[in-house]
Design goal:
heterodimer, A: mainly beta, 6-stranded mixed sheet, 5-stranded antiparallel sheet, B: 116 residues, mainly beta, 4-stranded antiparallel sheet, 47% strand
Chain lengths: 111, 116
């Protein structure tokens, strides 16, 4: 079975500061990993995905994530937070084509 | 183009009643997924359709839950004898290529089900 663990249910950063959201995965086979963002009262939107082509993946809105097999991690980063980045972020891994999600991290951006 | 749509956006029902939740996937998408998201949790997989058939229904919690996709497009999630524990947001997603783990799943806004 595959699973993901998101460390920190809430993260607060100041506007302009680095954003780091942590995700560790467990998988017996090479995983495919995803980050989704959920804004209030909206559906999940794909930020980026790792499909084994490159370990550093760039996504939308300035986010990127690096796949580190030795650490079983796929942390999400953004160099400079904007107020508009406030949302809930979910890491996910594929499991028989369906996605297995982590419990989410709520990002707050302070002015 | 149009994204995944779900109706109704909100549904309030009484314990023991029957409900149907509808999902309209993106046109041309072969694969369709249902997930359930409880408060404070990530979405949990319920069922996956490849065309008209349910390719994987291992996430359905019990036999009160059933889903159909008779023409390979619109899908309906059906819940019989609803219980208060069924209260959650039910999400639908579709993807272009059935059977491709790397294919992006596009999510609808969800149906918030409240069972009183």
């Amino acid at each position: 079975a595959q699973s993901v663990t998101q460390l920190g249910s809430h993260v607060s950063v100041s506007e302009g500061a680095l954003v780091l959201l942590r995700c560790n995965y467990s998988s017996s086979v090479p995983p495919y990993l995803f980050w989704y963002v959920q804004y209030p009262n909206q559906g999940l939107q794909l930020l980026l995905k790792y499909t084994s082509a490159a370990t550093l993946v760039k996504g939308i809105n300035g986010f990127e994530a690096e796949f580190k097999k030795s650490e079983t991690s796929f942390h999400l980063t953004k160099p400079s937070a904007h107020m508009s980045d406030a949302a809930e972020y979910f890491c996910a891994v594929t499991s028989r084509r369906a996605l297995t999600f982590g419990s989410g991290t709520r990002l707050q951006v302070q002015p | 183009g149009a994204g995944v749509s779900q109706t109704p956006s909100n549904k309030v029902t009484e314990k023991g009643k029957y409900v149907e939740l509808r999902c309209d996937p993106i046109s041309g998408h072969t694969a369709l997924y249902w997930y359930r998201q409880s408060l404070g949790q990530g979405p949990e997989f319920l069922i996956y359709f490849q065309g008209t058939g349910a390719a994987d229904d291992s996430g359905l919690p019990n036999d009160r839950f059933f889903a159909v996709r008779p023409e390979g497009s619109v899908s309906t999630l059906k819940i019989q004898r609803t219980e208060r524990g069924d209260s959650a947001v039910y999400l639908c997603a579709s993807s272009l290529i059935a059977g491709a783990s790397t294919d992006t799943q596009y999510f609808g806004p969800g149906t918030r089900l409240t069972v009183l």
